[in-house]
Every structure is written in structure tokens, then in C-alpha cells.
Amino acid sequence: MSTPRERRRHLEYHPAMRITLDHLRRYAIARSLFKPTTLRRAIEKLGFVQADPIRAPARAQDLTLRHRVADYRAGDLERRYPKLPVEEDFLVNYGYLPRVHQQLMHPRTPRTVWTAARAGQAAAVLAFIRARGAVHPREVDAQFAHGKVTNWFGGSSNASTQLLDVMHYRGLLRVARREGGTRIYAVRDTDADLGAGGGAGAVACMDALVDLIVNKYAPLPAGGLAQLVRQLRGGAPQWTAQRGEALARAKRRLAHMRIDGVDWYWPAADRPASVRWRPDDGVRLLTPFDPIVWDRRRFEIFWGWTYRFEAYTPAPKRKLGYYALPLLWHERVVGWGNVTASDGELRSSFGYIGGRAPRSAVFRAGLEAELARMRSFLGIAE
Q1: Whole-angstrom distance, CA of residue 382 vs CA of residue 345
Q2: Using CA atoms, how far apart are residues 140 and 136, in angstroms rounded to an integer?
Q3: Of 102, 124, 177, 317, which residue is least crowded by CB atoms under 10 Å?
Q4: Taking Cα atoms as reference points, which of 274, 217, 277 lies closest to residue 250?
Q5: pLDDT digits (tens, 9 = 90+) for 120-141
Q6: Are 224 and 298 in contact (CB under 8 A)?
Q7: Residue 304 — left, alpha, or beta (φ > 0 → left; ψ -120 to 50 → alpha)?
Q8: Is residue 70 situated within a structural domain?
Q9: What is the reported pLDDT for 4?
Q10: pLDDT digits (tens, 9 = 90+) for 265-280
Q11: Quick check: helix, strand or coil at residue 163?
Q12: Domain residues for 170?
């Protein structure tokens, strides 16, 4: 007679088991919302944490990590960053990633060639920062007075700040720490940091980068996978022409299944039909940049409604709110919440796809517990 453990293993998965959309949805949630761990371990498991400067009620990186790091408080990543083996950089978007992953993208070949004058400015700034050790952008601006330039949003910015940003992207500088959200720059030790990017070939690096983003966002519909591989142009512009081949290789090595006319991909070692992927009954407010939410096409397939990030939508045209946080309960995203912290109080309002909150004592208790966790995260007293 088999033991309970053996019977459980038999029920978990076998190769002929038919994987359904329900399996993929549970798998997507449970693999991303792993048991809270240390900050370093959580970043390693995620592989990359997207950053965003908007605080509503906290920055996206903090809202992402609070679900995955034990006893996490808003700002912990910024406070502890200097002692962590992580870097700020651009992958498929801007954020934080382990240093070993950053090395896969460097040395970068810039997409534009500097003029002699621009290269001279950069060399002077580099020498200034090397002599100082670490500098605030206003120190560079005060020293060189590069003037003003038009920024990405059509406004005016210090030319020195933009130059520092470009030098960081090119791998000449690194973010040593932040002060009040502002990057403090230091010279990057390029000889020590070439690592995997300098020693491995383009194919190996591109495959590792694709696996990194798949591990974070899986399971991915084919369109989402293709979009992420295209966005690797930002992190590894030197291999832009190789993205098509990298996508083809990924499709061959990843697990794959077509469900309801959609091709899905996930790491080959994972078994989405396993009962280990079992979301809990908790209620969670997710940032718009959370891995569970990020792929909007997948979101609509899983939950049957369209979620939009409306921070840059004119107020009269918003339907969900300035920074609506998707509201996850068990394996359903039942609505959204808008949460603000003001005068030592947490204010919240909610909208629901069904027109009203679920009629469940478990949901009500879960929502109260989530708001209590949010207060603790933000340092707000009950």
C-alpha cells in the first residue's frame, strides 16, 4: 500500500496531464508570491525588480518587495542597497538586479556615437567623480555648469544630470547609493565588472538574459515573451540584431503548450499542473509593475478584464484611479484599490469588477489584514 506522501506525489503531476488555463493562473501567482525571505534572496529569486519613482503610497520597487521580503518596510531597498550585491541598471526596464546579472549586459555598445565635445565632457566628469569617490548630481552641475536640455517629457533638465544618466547607462558609472531618491554616482570598476558579459559569448549572454526575464514573468503567452525579448534592446543594445535568434532558441528550450489558441511558455523544469502551485487565501494589493500584473495581455486572459495604468491619463478620463493597485484574492483579481498615506493616516477606496465586494467573511478579513500590513509597511500607527 502506498504512503500518503507517495499518493500525493502521484497526484501532483505526470507528463500526460493536461494543463489548463486554471493551472497556469495558479502557477503564475504561487511561483511569484513565494514565501517571504530576506531582501537579498528575494531579489535573487525575482532576478530583477522594476523601479518607478511615483509614491502612491510607495515606490513600485517597495510595493513589489513587501509581499516577498519578511518584515519589509518602505525604503528598505534604498537604505540597504550599498551593502547588497545588486546594481541599478536597465534590463527590459529600469530597476534593481543582482550584480552577476548586470554583468551579462556589459560592456554595452552605445546606440549613438558621442561627438568629440561630448566625449570630452564625459572624460572630465569621470575624472572629477573618480577624485571625489561619489558625487551628487548637483556637485557635477556646480563644477561644470553644462546648462539646460530638454528632457524626455518635453520639460527642462540639467544637462549634467542627463550626462550622468547616459554615462551610467554606458557602464562608466554606477549608482553607489541614493539620497532622498536621488542617485549618488561613483566610477564603475570596469576591469572587475566585465565578468560574464566580457568573457561569455553573445549567444550565451542573450540566452541567460532571456531565461532571466522568463523566470520572473512566467508563464508567458507568446506575445508577451516576444515583447520582453524585443525590450532587451534596452539592456543589451549591442545584440539587437540577435534578438530574433534568441527568441527562437528560447521557444525550443522552454516548456510550451497551446491553450485556447494561445501559445504559452515557461521554464522547462517547472510543472504548472503540480498541486504545489496553490495560491493562499490572502488578499493583496499589487503594484501596477508587479510580475503578476505586468503583462497586460496575460492579465486579461487570466481574469477577463482590462487593467490600465492611469497615472499619466488626464484625471477626467481615468476609470480606475491615478495609481490603482490590482486587488488579488486567492487566484482572482477581483478589483482595484487606491491607497494614500496622509497626515499619519491610511486612506483607501476600492472598485470591484462585479460592482461590489465579494460577499465573503474570508475576503473581508483578508482585506483588513492587508490594510494592516500596508500601515506597518508605511510606518503608520493603527
Answers
A1: 8
A2: 7
A3: 317
A4: 217
A5: 999 999 999 999 999 999 999 9
A6: yes
A7: left
A8: no
A9: 43
A10: 999 999 999 999 999 9
A11: helix
A12: 116-193
Per the structure block, which three cell numbers stand in for 298?
496575460
What is the dihedral sign for C-alpha 159, 165, 167, 170? negative
DSSP-assigned letters across all residues of 83-136: GSSEEEEESSSEEEEEHHHHGGG-S---SSPPPHHHHHHHHHHHHHHHHHSSB-
pLDDT given at position 156: 46
Burial 287-309 (b: 16+ CB within 10 A, else e): bbbbbbbbbeebbebbbeeebeb
pLDDT over 60 (residue 153): no
Strand partners, 340: 347
Which among 266, 296, 323 is the end of a domain? 266
Cell triple for 82: 550599498
- pLDDT at residue 195 in the model: 46
Residue 18 has pLDDT above 90, yes or no: no
* pLDDT, tens digit (0-9, with 9 covering 90-100), for 76-117: 999 999 999 999 999 999 999 999 999 999 999 887 899 999
Cα of first residue to Cα of last residue in the chain, in angstroms, is 54
User: pLDDT value at position 382?
Assistant: 72
Are 157 and 234 in the same domain?
no
Cβ pair 28, 218 in contact under 8 A: yes
Task: Tell me the CATH number at 129.
Answer: 1.10.10.10
- 39: closest CA among 16, 6, 67, 14? 67
For residue 88, the tally of other CB atoms under 10 A from its CB is 19
Residues 301 and 217 occupy one common structural domain: no
